[in-house]
Structure formats: structure tokens, C-alpha cells
Amino acid sequence: MTDSPIRFGIIGCADIARKVSRAILLAPNATLSAVASRSVDKAANFAKANGFPPEAKIYGSYESLLDDPDIDAVYMPLPTSLHLKWAVLTAQKKKHLLTEKPVALNVAEFDEILKACEENGVQIMDGTMWMHHPRTQKMKEFLDDKERFGQLKTVNSCFSFFTDPDFLKNDIRVKPDLDALGALGDEGWYCIRSILWAADYELPKTATALRGPVLNDAGVILECGASLQWEDGKTATFHCSFLQNLTMNITAIGTYGTLHLTDFVIPYQEHEASYIASAKPGFNDLVTGWTSLPSQHTVTADLPQEVCMVREFAKLVQNIKKNGAKPDKKWATISRKTQLVLDAVKASIGKGFEPVEIVN
């Protein structure tokens, strides 16, 4: 007998919720059961536009959805400033929580959310989709190969996209009362996560913001970068921007090898994704070309990465519901470390680009 699908409710009708709604519909162990907005009409229109099942419930308030005993899990695409209130309430209502990133405005808020989840025995996961793509596992196998890649030495990560004047004036990601972390929270989260992923989630000792960040008139970050340093000599840099061409790069360099990809956040295609691996290259005798050329590796995916994310989250929830398992702490730990580094970068900007120590 197969497990019953996890019944998802969505609170908020943000644009990203369109993509995750589709992912829930495609996930084999999940189903869309409800959507809530601050108006019934908006929720109803969202459900109709995004192919919700006819039996899905429509709510005109977030509280109504959270009070529904038939909802197992909540996907929360609300602005970051609203996460603390609604994530805590979601946990208190015993609903498992898949939340958009960044999880919170700072680690103090994050810890309040995590405390509520732990006290109520609910699973939490943030919506960093690329972590769940099968390519990510294949790339990690290369990074872990001491013969081919060696010891990690440095990581460079970049996520940027060019936005129009309307975005820079009206998007919630540039509003200090909604998403005060701006590009650092929206794009920098991915960059920091990619660096931590390459470093086996070992926290750097310090973060130093790079000079020249761009802020809007309200003080929200539109573009910034930082360098990270570890006690053993590893280094990393990242750059995020709302003001530059669409770029999604990771380069991880080891003593013997290099990993490089240019679409790490969202693959160029849904059902396959590639990366380039270089192991112990060199030059030919006349130094006119390379020997041991880098190789491109393509990984196919039966399901889009966001569906893989929903499937993994629903699997964890099913294990809790059916087997009485404890929530998996892996995802909360990874999220918290990402939040700690993000906080340190923001603090370094505020302190005139001085190094800020990262304390777990």
C-alpha cells in the first residue's frame, strides 16, 4: 500500500508560487489541497490560473488555511519580513514548512522559527531548488574525489540579473519593509549556499564585504559582494546584483582539479544539466595548448529540480507521519549556516567593510 500524498497548502500568491504549485502537482507524493491569500478572489484566481484540483480549498486569510486539519504542509512564498510571524504560527499549527529563502531577516529570527519547528515536531526546508537536482550530487562526487580534485582551495560564485526601472521601484525585493535584504537575500543566498556546499558546510572564520555595494535610496542592497576566509587557508568570493546581466556561475578550484558551471541556480534546460570538470591539466611541450582537456558532463533529470525538492520534502514529512520519525535536521542546519554568513556580510557592509567573525 502506497503512502498517502502530502497535502500542501500555499499561503500567499507570489510569482514564485506559480512554479512551486506546478512542482507540487508533478511530485508523485504530494498534492495541492488549498491556497490562501488576503482576498478570496485573488486566491481563487491563482488556483484557477495554476491548475489546482477542483477540490482544492480557497481561503481569504492565511489563518483559515492554517486552521484546516486536512493540510499536512505549508509552502510559504511570503516576503521575508513576514516569515517570522507566519512560520512560527505554521509550526504551532503542526504544519510542516517549506519556505522561500532567505528564511529570515537575520539569524535571531531564524532561531525563533527553528525553535517553533522543533517544539512542534515539524519539518522545515528552504526553497533552494538547485540543491535537489541530480547534477548537484554528481558534482559533489567530483569535489570529494581526492585523486582528481584534491583539496578545495577557493570558490567563486556569482548570481546576477538585470532588472528594469519598474522592478527597481516597485518589486518587493527592493522594499525595506518587505525584503530588506535586497539582492543579498534574493541572490546572495544562492551564492553563499553554493560556497558552503563546496566546502562541506564548514563555516568560514570571517566574511568581509567588498567595497562599492550599490544601495537604493531606502538603503536596500541592489548589488554587493564579499570574500570569505577559513582558518585552513581556503577562500571564497561571491557577487550578487540586480543591475547586471543574467549570470549563474560557480567555479570551485582544488589542488588538482576545477569544477565550473554557468547555470547553477536554474539549469538551461529542465531535464538535463551540465558541468565542466578539469583534473590535472597541463600544457603541451611548446605551451601552445592544453593536455588533459576539461570534460563536459551532462546529467539527465526525470523531474525538474523544484519537483525533486518537493518530493524530498514530502518524503521526510511522510516518514514523520507514518513512522513517527524525527524531523531531519540537515536542512535546518544548512539554512542556518547560510543565514549566519549572510548576516556577517551585511554586518561587514555596515561596519565599513571590516572583517566580521562568523560564530556558529
Q: In summary, what is this structure?
A:
The protein has helices at residues 16-26, 40-49, 62-66, 83-92, 107-119, 134-143, 165-170, 182-198, 305-323, 330-350, and strands at residues 6-11, 30-36, 57-59, 73-76, 96-99, 124-126, 152-160, 206-209, 214-215, 221-229, 235-241, 247-254, 257-261, 272-279, 282-283, 290-291, 295-300, 356-357. It is an alpha/beta fold and 360 residues long. The protein folds into two domains: 6-129 and 306-331, NAD(P)-binding Rossmann-like Domain (Rossmann fold, 3-Layer(aba) Sandwich), CATH 3.40.50; 130-303 and 339-357, Dihydrodipicolinate Reductase, domain 2, CATH 3.30.360.
Q: Could you explain how this protein is built, in words?
A:
Belongs to the Gfo/Idh/MocA family. It holds the Pfam family GFO_IDH_MocA. One of its GO terms (molecular function) is nucleotide binding. Residues 6-125 form the Gfo/Idh/MocA-like oxidoreductase N-terminal domain. The structure is a single chain. The protein has helices spanning 16-26, 40-49, 62-66, 83-92, 107-119, 134-143, 165-170, 182-198, 305-323, 330-350; strands spanning 6-11, 30-36, 57-59, 73-76, 96-99, 124-126, 152-160, 206-209, 214-215, 221-229, 235-241, 247-254, 257-261, 272-279, 282-283, 290-291, 295-300, 356-357. With 360 residues, it is α/β, with parallel strands linked by helices. It folds into two domains: 6-129 and 306-331, NAD(P)-binding Rossmann-like Domain (Rossmann fold), CATH 3.40.50; 130-303 and 339-357, Dihydrodipicolinate Reductase, domain 2. The strands form three sheets. Strands 7, 8, 9, 10, 11, 12, 13, 14, 17 and 18 form a ten-stranded mixed beta sheet that branches. It has a six-stranded parallel beta sheet with strand order 3-2-1-4-5-6, sandwiched between helices. The longest helix is centred in the C-terminal third of the chain and has 21 residues, at 330-350. It is globular.
